[in-house]
């Protein structure tokens, strides 16, 4: 079991390397010149060449990549071409916002998705099941930016139940202020995931509910709660956890749009700004960090299989 | 029938939903299991025997089945009057069940020890430690070697026979008064079958637990049951004690089943089969339900009049008009010695 976990951790390294190479190349393939960005709008050709040499951008591509990678390995992600601030500092500043947003969205998706999925899956074909399935279909087909605008319009503007935009950290506004500001963005962002979780949970509960061992659990006098939560859910969990892992990447992607709409100073906002300004070091750092998070989540998902399916532990 | 029966099923009807409305798959099930006794419920696939057993456990699919009439009494209490919540504490403690498919009847996500211990905890309120101790103890009782270590393992590390032993351990962990065993050996190797049956017989004898054995294998019945109920097309067609039924069957269907026993061939008798199949619930023939397959059927009688289950010889009951009228009596002669043959055969297997 330890070797399985160890192997999965080691497998993260080559993926990170490949992704780092791809992002590093991508920024060189897009039109635009990093040196002219860094030199400013009114720089002369000589000034730009000077900046190019200073930044080391005149060296061969592979040398630049190796040098960048060497710094990354030491924890340095370089400095922004625009603000001259450390990329790492910018990322660390923006990270809590995006992390709060995605985790809240995830929480919303898990709570709503599991609840609807279980209720629907326990009585397939019932009115409740049909309602839940319809709601899930609607949820999947609603673009999050559209839902965000509707939520802002109705909940924030018409009823005044939540702030329209902005972010307050827990340190500034306490848990309540933090939560109020993230509620609408998290719901908008998490709805598609909630719908996916609902569908997977429902399918899992229906499937597992028809298994012989569930009949065994009932036959030996287990209360319904135990039959559902202990015997059914653990066996139905693997596809749900898998979907959650896959959805994490989608959530981070979706966060870019949602942060824009709600004016949240997170990674998404940083990403849009740096891409529009061709601030390549920031883009590279961002992609690398998001990749690391996604890999981490899929590692957690893989590891959770060991818990949910004892057969995996021995193979 | 005696009034002190542990399980009493009377006029039980079970209907399943289908595209054409409700189909009656059990029509008047009737049987008793005495305390500490062993009753066999015998019939081909589709005879309604498993449905009857599931009904007794309250395990029929709720949305797709209904029980329009009937009583299922456990120690005088009609289980059909109980809500699910009221029935739950009885499952596992008063009546327990093991199933045909040991490979899929255990939860793959929990250790076998936990699956037994949780039963003990829920029913007795025992501590985790005590419940686990009981789980190991009962695993030992059903013949699992190194029970303390095996309790920590997951079902996929057990063979089919061992899983059925685990199922039996789980079923008897709270000392139920009645064990319903639905084709417990059908999915197992022949050699394993005998040892599982020997285990069940031993448990029944040593713990005075009553057993309702649902099976299509008359060899199994001869080996271990006191009484037999034969079902055909959702109805009981004959009921007697085992020796009586094997020695002088009073229904052509029972006689046909006996002649179809592979063990019969060992005694030099011809192995035969019953032509045709059990009719579908929506295509029941008029008159006696067995008459299209019956070599003794009489035109103008069996295809018109519906027989009832009536006593033909003391407690021996039969649902055959011609037997009831005394028109057939040669059934008995063709099946002499079947009990002895079956018992000898099974003992051979056990060894």
The CA-CA distance between the termini of chain B, in Å, is 37 Å
Q: Write down the overall geometry of chain A.
A: globular
Range of helix content of chain A: over 70%
Query: Mind telling me which CATH architecture of the largest domain in chain B this is?
Result: 3-Layer(aba) Sandwich
Structural class of chain A, please?
mainly alpha
Number of helices of chain A: 13
Identify the most extensive interface between protein chains.
A-B, 24 and 30 residues
- Average pLDDT value of chain B? 88
Order of helices and strands of chain A: HHHHHHHHHHHHH
Note poorly predicted spans of chain A: none
Question: For the record, what CATH class of the largest domain in chain B applies?
Answer: Alpha Beta
Structural class of chain B: alpha/beta
Outline of the structure:
By secondary structure, chain A is an all-alpha fold. Chain A contains 13 helices and no strands.
Secondary structure blueprint with pairings:
The complex is a heterodimer of chains A (315) and B (351).
Chain A: H1 2-29, H2 34-39, H3 45-55, H4 61-73, H5 87-122, H6 127-141, H7 144-158, H8 170-209, H9 212-219, H10 224-262, H11 267-276, H12 280-308, H13 310-314
Chain B: E1 7-18, E2 21-33, E3 38-42, H1 49-57, E4 65-66, E5 71-74, E6 77-78, H2 84-87, E7 95-98, H3 112-124, H4 128-141, H5 147-150, H6 160-172, E8 178-182, H7 190-207, E9 210-215, H8 218-224, E10 227-232, E11 235-241, H9 242-247, H10 252-259, H11 262-266, E12 310-313, E13 316-318, H12 321-324, H13 338-350
Parallel strand pairs in B: 3-9, 3-10, 7-8, 8-9
Antiparallel strand pairs in B: 1-2, 1-4, 1-5, 5-6, 10-11, 11-13, 12-13
């Amino acid at each position: 079991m330890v070797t399985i976990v160890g192997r999965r951790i080691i497998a993260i390294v080559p993926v990170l390397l490949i992704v780092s190479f791809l992002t590093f190349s991508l920024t060189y393939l897009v039109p635009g010149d990093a040196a002219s960005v860094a030199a400013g709008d009114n720089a002369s050709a000589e000034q730009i060449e000077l900046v190019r040499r200073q930044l080391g951008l005149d060296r061969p591509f592979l040398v630049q990549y190796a040098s960048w990678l060497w710094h990354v390995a030491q924890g340095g992600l370089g400095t922004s071409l625009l603000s001259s601030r450390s990329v790492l500092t910018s990322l660390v500043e923006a990270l809590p916002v995006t992390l709060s947003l995605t985790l809240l969205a995830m929480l919303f998706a898990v709570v709503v998705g599991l609840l609807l999925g279980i209720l629907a899956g326990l009585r397939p074909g019932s009115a409740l099941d049909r309602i839940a399935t319809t709601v899930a279909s609607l949820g999947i087909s609603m673009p999050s930016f559209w839902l965000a605008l509707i939520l802002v319009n109705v909940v924030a503007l018409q009823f005044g139940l939540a702030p329209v935009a902005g972010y307050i950290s827990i340190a500034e506004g306490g848990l309540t202020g933090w939560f109020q500001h993230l509620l609408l963005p998290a719901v908008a962002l998490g709805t598609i995931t909630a719908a996916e979780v609902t569908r997977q949970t429902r399918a899992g509960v229906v499937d597992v509910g028809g298994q012989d061992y569930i009949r065994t659990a009932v036959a030996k006098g287990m209360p319904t709660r135990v039959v559902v939560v202990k015997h059914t859910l653990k066996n139905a969990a693997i596809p749900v956890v898998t979907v959650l892992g896959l959805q994490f990447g989608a959530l981070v992607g979706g966060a870019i749009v949602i942060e824009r709409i709600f004016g949240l100073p997170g990674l998404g906002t940083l990403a849009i700004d740096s891409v529009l300004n061709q601030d390549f070091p920031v883009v590279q750092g961002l992609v690398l960090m998001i990749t690391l998070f996604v890999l981490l989540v899929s590692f957690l998902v893989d590891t959770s299989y060991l818990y949910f399916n004892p057969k995996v532990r021995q193979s | 029938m005696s009034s002190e029966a542990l399980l009493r099923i009377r006029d039980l009807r079970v209907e399943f939903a289908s595209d054409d409305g409700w189909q009656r798959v059990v029509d008047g099930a009737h049987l008793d299991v005495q305390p500490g006794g062993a009753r066999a419920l015998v019939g081909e696939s589709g005879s309604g025997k498993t449905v009857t057993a599931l009904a007794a456990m309250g395990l029929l699919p709720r949305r797709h089945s209904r029980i329009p009439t009937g009583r299922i009494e456990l120690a005088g209490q009609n289980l059909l009057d109980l809500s699910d919540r009221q029935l739950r504490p009885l499952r596992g403690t008063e009546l327990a069940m093991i199933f045909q498919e040991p490979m899929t009847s255990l939860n793959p996500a929990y250790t076998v020890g936990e699956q037994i211990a949780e039963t003990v905890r829920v029913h007795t309120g025992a501590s985790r430690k005590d419940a686990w101790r009981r789980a190991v103890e009962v695993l030992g009782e059903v013949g699992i070697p190194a029970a303390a270590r095996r309790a920590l393992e997951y079902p996929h590390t057990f063979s089919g026979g061992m899983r059925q032993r685990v199922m039996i351990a789980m079923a008897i962990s709270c000392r139920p008064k009645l064990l319903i065993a639905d084709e417990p050996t059908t999915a197992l190797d022949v050699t394993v079958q005998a040892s599982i049956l020997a285990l069940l017989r031993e448990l029944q004898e040593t713990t005075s637990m009553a057993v309702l054995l649902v099976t299509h294998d008359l060899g199994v019945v001869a080996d271990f049951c006191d009484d037999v109920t034969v079902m055909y097309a959702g109805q009981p067609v004959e009921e007697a004690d085992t020796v009586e039924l094997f020695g002088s069957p009073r229904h052509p269907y029972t006689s046909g089943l006996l002649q179809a026993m592979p063990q019969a061939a060992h005694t030099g008798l011809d192995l035969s089969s019953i032509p045709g199949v059990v009719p579908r619930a929506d295509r029941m023939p008029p008159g006696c339900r067995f008459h299209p397959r019956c070599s003794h059927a009489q035109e103008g009688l069996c295809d018109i009049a519906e027989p009832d289950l009536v006593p033909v010889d003391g407690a021996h009951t039969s649902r055959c008009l011609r037997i009831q009228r005394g028109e057939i009596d040669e059934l008995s002669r063709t099946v002499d010695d079947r009990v002895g043959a079956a018992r000898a055969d099974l003992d051979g297997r056990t060894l």
